[in-house]
Amino acid sequence: MIRLLSTLFIAVILANSSVLAQVEQTKGTFKDKFRQLDEILPTPNVYRNAAGEPGHKYWQQKVDYKIKATLLEDKRRLEAIEEITYTNNSPDTLRYLWLQLDQNRFKKDSMAEKSTAFAGIGRRGPGTKLGNRTKAHGLSMEEIRRQQYMDDNRFGYDVLNVTDAKGNPLNVALVGTNLRVDLKSPLKPGKKVKFNVEFAFNIVDENIIYARGGYEHFPNDKREGGNDIFLFAQWFPRLHAYTDYEAWTNKEFLGRGEFTLEFGDYELEMTVPADHIVSSTGTLQNPKDVLTKEQMKRLKEAETADKPHFIVTAAEALENEAAGTDAVKTWKFDADNVRDFAWATSRKFMWDAQGYQQDGADQELVMAMSFYPKEGGDLWKKYSTASIIHTMEVYGHFTFDYPYPTSQSVNGPVGGMEYPMITFNGPRTKLHKDGTRTYSEGMKKYLIGVVIHEVGHNYFPMIVNSDERQWTWMDEGLNSFLDAVAGREWDTSVSWGAEPKDIVAYMKSDKQVPIMTQADSLWRPGPNAYAKPAVALNILRETILGRELFDFAFKEYSRRWKFKRPTPSDFFRTMEEASGVDLDWFWRGWFYTTDHVDISLDAVYKLRVDTKNPLVEKPVKETERLEKHTKSIFLKQNAKDGKKTWMEKNEDIRDFYDEVKVNDILEADHKALGKYLKGLEKDKDYAWQRTVFERAIKDNKSYYILELNNKGGLVMPVILGLEFTDGSRSKDYIPAEIWRRTPDQVHKLLVFPKGKELKQVVLDPDWETSDTDLDNNYYPRQIIPSRVEIYKGKGYKPSRMKKWLDAEKKKADDAKKAPTKTDKVSDKVDKVTEK
């Protein structure tokens, strides 16, 4: 029910009502949610200007690689040598270079291994909290297996030789996953240096070691010993980035924070077994050496195909899978202006492709390609390559045309990971006893979603080259926002995430840190670096800026920083500068704090203009008086019992006060109205006041004041769903700036035409702002719907002793039926123990 305020003259209400008064903020308690970010963001300079775009002296380094790699399949080992050409485009003279040695993360004594806590990501099981202590209650079989595997094998670079262009050793310093290479002479601005690195390492089993690359073994294939799929990522020593904002970005690789890299040109040669098929960053340079004439013909036909066209068919893949060879082939790939290089190889791969045309683009033809084993089945045949093309279509609308000649999806042991022009994606079909393969609806969505997400990473951060080691959200958050858009444009009947409701549980939890937290320190990377920024951008687009302003600004950011290295300040400044909207309050709340959205509508006050006319006002006052009087439970009960008052039994004692009621109209009331109007004439603003007074009475508008409380701390626009007594509805949007002076509580005046009476007000009726408590969004409050669950009690639970007795009895019964069964089990246990 909407509250009724005492009827007062509207001018007096607006000026003096305590309902409207805000608590005066003092110096000690004032909260400025709209404080500008200038004090937090780095000062604009010649490299990055105040508009959020590259400055007139922006620079970045260039690193080119020539690598020859050989896969020793039976040893599951890679041996290689690389020639690195480093171009110093900075204004600084460099006396040493820093390289990333990501494979060293897998050494037993690495910082990543030694600093992984019990129950760390992808590792051991949880513990039980006992006061201030945690008691471990389980060690998974997977973790024991991992420990044994690490004991039995040596990982990390076990060959690492660095020489200058003439083959002379260079002085180096190994620091965990980093290697400092001391130059023989300082590298001045504009100069280049060449040096060589010989390296080798044992490849990890991805199903045992949580990694972004490795091998997966298929023991049940027809070939003796089975087959493997090899995924090579973070596999070669590569340069750390040297930047204008941080100099060397040489933070230790701990596994969570990803990579900061330089663009360059690559030439690679990969020598693998002759029956392998290779998928790689770049363009194949020697197809005649590694493909059959028929396969080359199919590849050409795929350029203009209207659906995925097989280059290596399922039958050919099965034939390769069953065979074996000691011969080798060398695949050669070139890639220009990329920041990394990854590849995959296996004899199990079938390969399909389809050309994607970008008319008018610098790269008009892009070959979308998928590589997968028989385990991928129809799931991959139908959806992998199609999802690649769909991604480029959607992302091109929001950013720029895809600039590379290929975009690939490879099935392997890695669930989802991205590199320039190539992605690793995990979902597969399920094999049944009759030999058929099926996939669930969830697995279908998983494949489409992961391909969209990983291909989307080609835009962020493979082209818009943000620093993943520091700010995970700059690639994962932006990409999660866009992959949800692409998902919804694929199929609207499925939920693809990034909706405001999706982040509510995380927003109100105490297990969170600000989005602007360094990658390795994130408590829960998924909701923090992926979901929360994705939802924030969705709200910014749909609710705060609107699609036109947001899309223009986002595309401008993408265009400005294509093939360059942006920082968070560049993104924040570009979005503000290009949209023309001050968003510091938004960045501060969503990215720098752990506040959440919870705006409560705690009261609605209805106001009425006092006409001063006794013929109008006196009856209203009398009605109000009687309503209050008749609510007395005492009087109601007396009336029910038929009791009469003394006055009713003795009418002869009635006097003036009994005859003339307090709200009866008297001559004095008419004189009071005349006196009031005459008083207005003495005021210099008489004409204006008289007009306002008479117009207010004539219009008889409805005035309501809403009391809003910000319980979550995060300021957001106030979105009102209004329902009126005549059955009509409307939606009103109040900008977030309403909180700028009093961020904890505000009152808002709403005015409606004559006869328009409020029936109900709902905050955020479409759940656009991630409000964490919808129950306090209604006025009047609503009954909260729920369900009563009818259940059956769990009943008797056997004791541990009973379970033991039952097991012993079953064991004895089994021994009588099959005397050799226990012996067979014992033999198996003995063999495992001996092994």
TrEMBL record:
InterPro entries: Peptidase_M1_dom, Peptidase_M4/M1_CTD_sf. It holds the Pfam family Peptidase_M1. This is M1 family metallopeptidase. It comes from the Bacteria. The keyword Signal applies. Residues 395-590 form the Peptidase M1 membrane alanine aminopeptidase domain. The keyword Lipid biosynthesis does not apply. Its EC number is 3.4.11.-. One of its GO terms (molecular function) is aminopeptidase activity. It comes from Temperatibacter marinus. Residues 1-21 form the signal peptide. Residues 807-835 are annotated as: Disordered. The lineage of its organism: Bacteria, Pseudomonadati, Pseudomonadota, Alphaproteobacteria, Kordiimonadales. Keywords: Aminopeptidase, Hydrolase, Protease, Signal.
